[in-house]
## 1
Amino acid sequence: MPANKKLLEVKHLKQYFKNGRTLTKAVDDISFDIYEGETFGLVGESGSGKTTAGRSILQLYRPTSGQVLFEGQDVSQLHGQKQKRQFRRDAQMIFQDPYASLNPRMTVEDIIAEGLDIHHLVANKAERQARVEELLQEVGLNESHASRFPHEFSGGQRQRIGIARALAVKPKFIVADEPISALDVSIQAQVVNLMIDLQKKQGLTYLFIAHDLSMVKFISDRIGVMHYGKLLEVGPADDVYDRPLHDYTKSLISAVPVPDPEIERARKRISYDSQGEGIPGQTLHEIRPGHWVRCTKAEVPHYEAVAAIYE
Amino acid sequence: MINRILDVKHLKIDFHTYGGDVKAIRDVSFHLDPGETLAIVGESGSGKSVTTRSVIGLLAKNAKVMGGEINFHGQNLLELKEKQWQKIRGNEIAMIFQDPMTSLDPTMKIGQQIAEPLIKHRGTSKKAAWAKALEMMRAVGIPHPEERINEYPHQFSGGMRQRIVIAIALICEPEILLADEPTTALDVTVQAEILDLMKDLQKRVKTSIIFITHDLGVVAGMADRVAVMYAGELMEYGTVDDIFYNPQHPYTWGLINSMPTLASQTLASIPGTPPDLLNPPKGDPFCPRNQYALKIDLDHKPPFFKVSDTHYAATWLLHPEAPQVDPPAEIKRRWAKFKAMKRG
């Protein structure tokens, strides 16, 4: 994967929210890169800041500090409507809740074509209709669905509409914020497989945000683990799963239920004490090739020892 | 079958809507043994929640029981009047709801909410009930219960609220605990804690649990027996090992196969969507999504075929004259494991 070029670089991104006198550090100094054509999975529990990170990257919030570079350009420094529009076309989002993210008073055709209209990507009505039909087919729906309203669809179908809407403007990069967590198991697999298919066909790059670790491992090339607004561990998906270094990652993986009674009967949960995260001076250190852990310089030998156990 | 604590027979429930009658539960039978955990697995709309709600008399107003019986201590629960229900609900049969954010009263101190069932059902004095509430809070692992007993639900996190809901459900030591997706709204680490807590309390209180979930991982860890539901009917039921290592119904295969295990490389999905229960299909409801379907599935609903004394599945594939089919690789792997377990 690292042979590819970087599509997105997140550098010391901070997103703080002020609520009266309290300051919430939702995203607290995270840095990572996403390479072209890969899926980067961002995992964490609720309140870990993973959704906020995704939204800040897309400039849906104005980051408190730090940089987001898209194709080498700082997206907070885009000038004029033209540059901003180009970024909005290149980077799209798929939302978590397929029930809340589609306007109930718009037809599916209008929902999908809204981006086409804004970016003037179609010249006339016939072209617009043709493009919508093409998109519906791409996501496994058909043209008869175009004139219907969101309430006529099941959760899985709505998520397909959300995906078609994101694809309409031919983006390079898609932030998928828990795209399957509201769906049933048998439908989750359909949507994930669709996303993988589309990625292969169109060369898309994904930031896949989720709390379901087994699904994230399945779809992602690399994974970042977030906790309390900080990125604790980044590495190749298999590596982070099979050879987790940070205690938090270990505890998170040990809590994932496995559909196998024997494994469940033998399960040992690993408890986690977050006090180690408070040590000042922690940054990401590369312990194994491509596998980074947030720690101080002094803690590096400890993690190297942990990594050595797996060898 | 004297020792069955709950016996549900041929339950049929319709919902009246403007569009017509939704046949949500279509002839469902199952039982619950003392001290066991029965998991009912299914997708949304499969009828798993409706089934459990009928066991505690909390069906929506537009629901109508079209037939069947639910036997509990020799009485048919479906014939109870609301007054009689109030004696059983929260006392002999209790329930944990999915969303701990909405299942507590925001205007009541949590101590009062935990103590209420004791005061109502057992006539315990307020003082004694609060003492017992304090004890329950300790049992469900709420730190500093002496201070927190006077707090309100909004002062607790999601996981702590679910602990409170469990304390309320268990304070009367019910014989049956219904848990409707009790951990779906929680993070995995919190989920693991709550599941451990439920197992631990089940041993102490000796309650039987009906556990509803769509998460096969949770089922594998919690259940003694499993019932798989689809489109208002049971597809297959058996012990947890029967279902996970020797599944016979193609729907169960599909469910197991569409879960990514930590080792899986490919992800199979079940094509299509569940049928519309306004007009339920005549034959096997899973037939249109089933790549292993036989012609007979279209028109004739398969009966339950016996796999073993504990294991039954409603699929024509088990008929002696049915053709041999080749199940997915993951299922064959599990079958091999089952055979090895039986031998050794």
## 2
Amino acid sequence: MKSFSLGRFALPVYAVIAFVYLLIPIAYTFVFSFNNSLKTNLIWRGFTLDKWANVCQQQGVCEAFGNSILIGVISTVFATTLGTMIAIALVRYRFKFRSAVSLLLFLPMATPEVVLGAGLASQFFSLGAQKGIATIIIAHIMFCLSFVVVTVKARVASLDPALEEAGRDLYGSPSQVFWKITFPLLLPGIMAAALLSFALSFDDFIITNFNSGSAMTFPKYVYTAAARGIPAEANVVGSGVFLLAIAIVISIQVRSAAKAKRLRRS
Amino acid sequence: MATEFVARGADLELVGIRKEFPGFTAIENLDLKIPAGEFFALLGPSGCGKTTTLRLVAGLEQPTAGRILIGGKDVTDMKPHQRPVNTVFQSYALFPHMNVLENVAFGLRQRKIEEPLAKAQDALKLVELEHLALRRPQQLSGGQQQRVALARALVNRPSLLLLDEPLGALDLKLRRQMQIELKAIQMEVGLTFLHVTHDQEEAMDMADTVAVMNKGRIEQMGAPEKLYDRPKTVFVSKFLGQSNLFVGEVTEQNATSLSINVSGSKLTVPKERAERHEGRIALGVRPEKANFHEDEAPASSAGLNIIGPGEIIDIRFTGVSNQYLIDIPNLGQVTVFAQNIGKSPVTELGAKVWVSWKVEHSFGLSDLPIDSVTESIAVL
């Protein structure tokens, strides 16, 4: 008589389970950053703000975090600059081996990180390079570069060459045309590439671990600490980065929504 | 910057220009002189080299050979930003990250000219867009964008303004309106305009001089009325308006005229209106210069070319005129336009008619239509 539909309940239940599954690690990290923990941070021992207030008291957390930021910023600047230049050249100029270059640039993205990391490590070893922050930065620039090229290339390809020609026609020298027309129009793509680069660099453990020597980065610190129980300070840093990322995403969304609204009104 | 900027237009001279791209030659050998202050149109089908010519003048391409002179000064080796030339691009190429006013002021700012915004505002007034100065280009309609592009080029007072099919993206009504405005602005500012288009009506309507381009060469150049009245090649006769062409051997001639024999009909053309005076030639007439006659052939006279009888096989009503397609045995199909003024010949499909036109409306071409060449071989 009446059609009892399993689907009506199954879908919401499934959705809730999926979200719980996705969000549990994040929720755990965030909640346990307020745990009044002792050596290990596995059992809830009561709420405290101490860990947030004195995050740097735990040995090594802040140093590792600082290293990661430094490495992330430097690799991003280099990878984004180089990658943007390569992307423009690949789209705008016809040169020998252009398609080969395009393909080769894709390879680091397709290669397993373990292989890349180990390969680089042996190169540094045979060069006799002292492993540390510098070798990490070199490694990070290498693997970020491909992502930057792919991201910026899409933006360059969608840029009408007539715009640059119009700039030249309106008395702009090549460098003026680049900075007043090409660069501002590519900026959204370049920013996206830079954010992606930074996230990849900040996050990276595998390649870093092969090429860091004794230098500590945040992911490496957490990995090492996991052996003896991760301190709550690591949760604080992790949650902090997470909140910052969310804040950035929300502010960009709000800004573009406001801009769209303004465009629609006028 | 070395370039001087003038309030009036300068003349443009192209000397022996050749442009090769990998795999093909866009322009074979081009000589062209455009006097200062003239509205000059380069007319041709797509791929004829007209846009390449424009890009060479702008400096966006380098010629393989030849020189380009603007106002008597050789600019061949100058970069685009050093030339006293501005372009209105086909896609308008307005900078999407700047508002309309900043777009127009761009060239002035580059040259560090005083009060760029005030001058840009004046230029916008010229194209009647001053009320949209703070909009973004993407918020404007196609016609408005076109006018911003025009203002952005005109504000620099270039010696030479290049227009690359700037009306191509507009609908017919807006296009007519912009044609009138563009012509008015050209008269007002007195600059030299080089307009590239594939629209023959647009070229004839606006330009003082039209050059018809085909396959990288200029086929014919002159005032629009002259080009239309007296085309010299098959291409020009077909590209600029329509033509009825007849091919035949020159059989008789006197001091002022010559006649050809086309399957038994004698067609006459004044000698001064014929490019060649012997051998196989093509003779043409415009469809609106031809009339047709029902019932009986018109009385033959020296001043009249008469062919027929033939049969009306198609009638098209286009508003201002009726277009009749008449099939004449052994001669082929002839198009006749009759103006729609109420007393135009009332006829129906299948009617038997003769076609006539005045001898002085005939024109003789320098080449033969391709199909007639193959036909004659088949006949042989």
